[in-house]
Amino acid sequence: MFHIFHYQPLRLITQNGLSSMCLKLMLSRPVAFAQIWKSWFSSHSLLGKKNIILMGPPGAGKTTTGRIVGQKLDCPVIDIDDDVLEPTWNMSVSEKLQDLGYEEFLEEEGKALLKFSASGSVISLSGSNPMHAAGMQHVKKNGIVVYLDVPPAVIISRLKSKGTDRIVGLSPGVSLKDVLQFRKQFYKRWFDIRVLCGGDVAAEVVAEKVLDAVKRYQDSELETFISTRSGRSGRSMEEDSHKLYFSDVVVQGLALDGGLFVPERGLPKFSAEEWQGLIEATYIERAQVILERCIHPADIPASKLAEIIETAYGENFSCSKVAPVRHLAGNQFLLELFHGPTASFKDFALQLVPHLFAYCIPRSCNYLILVATSGDTGSAVLDGFSRLHDTDKQRIALVNFFPEDGVSQIQKSQMIGCQKENAWSVGVKSDFDFCQTAIKQIFTNSDFTGFLTVEYGTALAAANSINWARLLPQIVYHASAYLDLVHQGIISFGSPVDICIPTGNFGNMLAAFYAKMMGIPIRKCICASNENNVLTEFIRTGVYDLRGRKLISSFSPAVDILKSSNLERYLHLIANEDGQLVTQLFNQLEKQGHFQLRKDLLGRLQQDLVAGWCSDEDCLAAIHSVYSTTGYILDTHTAVAKVVADRLQDRTCPIIISSTAHYSKFAPAILRALRIAEINQNPLSQLHLLSSYSALPPIHWGLLETLKKTGNGDHQVCAADMSVLMSHIETLIQNHFM
């Protein structure tokens, strides 16, 4: 037997119909009555026959929170410890634990859970319930499991203040911190929704967060996507009848009107208390929390998302911190984003996105991913999609287009070496802007895409940063870098930082701005360009002008870009989602080669962004100077950002410079910067020469292994012609899927 706490606050609805108070209110104040009725109905329809199941460590506040939630919903409240276990055993839980010991207690607790049933209730689990698989499976069948995620330091403080000394698993030689860490794996396995709970948050606030989280879980309609070339006020009836969700935009990549997808209601915001709760967390834990809030569980359940994140970042990165922050000099810090398998920041998205894509696509169709790269994306996307399960590789293939003469020799060797049975590289006799524009045109060519679907049962998708899923993992590392500075005691939470990023396609910079919108205290976002400085001029003047501009090959090829695709998402945001204006601007850019922002929009842009650029000579000089003074070698892109940061920072707060690639990828330029007279043209020889310098960081492990195994290999090369590219695509589909 167990007791049910059933709260009966003053009610407007009685069992026999409308109370006299309700009737009086309805007649005298119909608007107020309608609001109260809507609130009452919403609360009572929230549960139905389902249970809200609160889960978390001892001391998380499950019992208190459960009673408040039950009161708000006017439904039964059941505490497993008080209302199930103790009445069943006729003794206290602590006495039972002392009597049986750890393992036998868990088994007896699980047996009691298997005999328990309830509906339409709020249930507070014991801290150890999730450790019994069969019992949890039984309870979860009829409920939504809400994980009250409280920082371990807060739990330890609470339990010590209560004098709690009997916890399942606690024994001589095993600390409470160890017990809490061990239990996390079980909590992560079972929850549907996570609610972050800091140390000083009142139970009433936690209860409201639980209710909000349950409402979100039950209503995926709230998280739809629109094109940057439409907007809330400009949606057509057809658009309203065909709403797009995260899983749709991951697969579709580019909107049918040529725009880019953005969340209709914007990104989630974290409170300062929620961010502070992540200071002690690992990178993987931070990624899970942030991405859970950005991806609705109807698209990818939390347990599956956790599995994908563990796969992406667990063993594929050489540094246990994944994206460590290193002090460079003065107030400058480097965010090292090159510890992934292909040595660039692209790995953060492209170790994750292939698994998201494979989960989201329908099983009835094959998919060919099209990618354009200016260098680092190529090897990262090839590596990422080649790590899919064999069954997924049979239905998902990828072709990577890159400028044949517009990437470094090592980058090219790496892209060729990363080719697998479902992933190929094609060199194009043009520049990156042609490759990127060609892919956009292919996606919007309904005749060609329709032909591929009908003839070969194959759809096209994109994995460039135009795909919304590519941006989310980048938000994570910008947020994580700030939290690391707090954790290291460099700043206290709430103190501002500046961020400086080598910027080409604007995706990395946009992700930093999104992190700022979500609550990370970023003051200035500094865009660093090389001599292809169209973006810098735009930020300074509001004029985006490609007339007479030709792409200049530089030592930092990943930012050798004139058309910054993700800028469209940013302009859509600052223009208050005016899709008509965005369409006008980018149509003008396409047809006339330029556009100019209105003065008010330029003013808003310049509140968010500042920009500078750097010549090749200054880039090499920065590499030499930093190595001479610190022994650290910057890659050519990070050096561009370093030069611009030196010029534009005001030194009143720390500045985080994104180190977007490992210097090994650009060995000839690095050797030149270090003033080595003779440079062997063999990429492997260049890396061996660099390794003799015993520099920090050491030569990249993944890059060295790739070059050792593959050499230069074979790849296809084609002319800069749309019909030729489409022919290549059709041939690859025939060879792989047919």
Compact description:
This protein has 738 residues and is an alpha/beta fold. The chain is built from 34 helices and 23 strands. The chain has a domain at 45-218: Rossmann fold.
Strand order of the largest sheet: 1-5-6-4-7-8
Helicity, as a percent range: 40-55%
Per CATH, the superfamily of one domain is P-loop containing nucleotide triphosphate hydrolases
CA-atom Rg in angstroms: 28 Å
CATH topology description of one domain? Rossmann fold
Rounded mean pLDDT score = 88
Using DSSP, what is the number of strands?
A: 23
Structural class: alpha/beta
Explain what this protein looks like in three dimensions:
Residues 239-313 form the Threonine synthase N-terminal domain. It holds the Pfam family SKI. Belongs to the threonine synthase family. This protein is α/β, with parallel strands linked by helices. It has a domain at 45-218: Rossmann fold (3-Layer(aba) Sandwich), CATH 3.40.50. 49% of the residues lie in helices and 14% in strands. It has 34 helices and 23 strands. It has a six-stranded mixed sheet with strand order 1-5-6-4-7-8, sandwiched between helices. It starts with a strand and ends with a helix.
